[in-house]
Amino acid sequence: MDRSEATPQPEDDLVIVVGAAILHAGRVLAARRSAPPHLAGGWEFPGGKLEPGEAEADALVRECHEELGVTVRAVRRLPGAWPLNPGYVLHLWQADLLDGEPRPLEDHSELRWLAPHELGDVAWLPQDRDAVAVVARLMAATPAG
Ligand SMILES: Nc1nc2c([nH]c(=O)n2[C@H]2C[C@H](O)[C@@H](COP(=O)(O)OP(=O)(O)OP(=O)(O)O)O2)c(=O)[nH]1
Q: Which parts of the chain are coiled coil (predicted)?
């Protein structure tokens, strides 16, 4: 019997993309992609692909430094894993902003700090929508600091 359709692709075969839900003063940072063309204009969580052998928390810190010029601390991985392009999966991490003011240095044309009631104000990439719902629940449960 061909079970291939019923068998999910093992996560081991996927490249993990880490996204950072950076919470600060009751808001979360959203970033509008500037490339590639089919993703440009869509909003996402800053982050990127894990390098071989790299821990997710380390990739998160590295990507936020490269893309935004800030230092973050990876707090914890949020529940869920969302398929992206074939072969890629998005993992989301809660992160604290330790140092710096985020700037769109790489891959993004605009950044916005969104309050919970503003999460629906930007055009998220479709594949991020369920992750945004997880962040909305996190923000509802997190006292604004
Ligand atoms: N960072 C990030 N990428 C996302 C999200 N949602 C989503 O579909 N993606 C896609 C966009 C890209 O195809 C891929 C991540 O690639 P990237 O270009 O950000 O990764 P990277 O910084 O490691 O880039 P590179 O070295 O390959 O240039 O995942 C998201 O919320 N955050």
A: none
Whether 88 is covered by a domain: the verdict is: yes
- Tell me the CATH number at 101: 3.90.79.10
Pocket test for ligand 1, best of 45, 49, 134 (most atoms within 8 A of CB): 49
Secondary structure of 38-58 in the HEC alphabet? CCCCCEECCEEECCCCCCHHH
**Structural domains in the chain (count):** 1
The ipTM value here is 0.93
Range of the domain at 32: 14-134
Burial 67-89 (b: 16+ CB within 10 A, else e): bbebebbbbeebeeebebeeeeb
For the chain, helix (H) and strand (E) counts, in that order, are: 2, 8
Does the beta carbon of 129 sit less than 6 angstroms from any atom of ligand 1?
no
pTM of the model: 0.91
pLDDT tens digits for range 3-57: 444 455 566 789 999 999 999 999 999 999 999 999 999 999 999 999 999 999 9
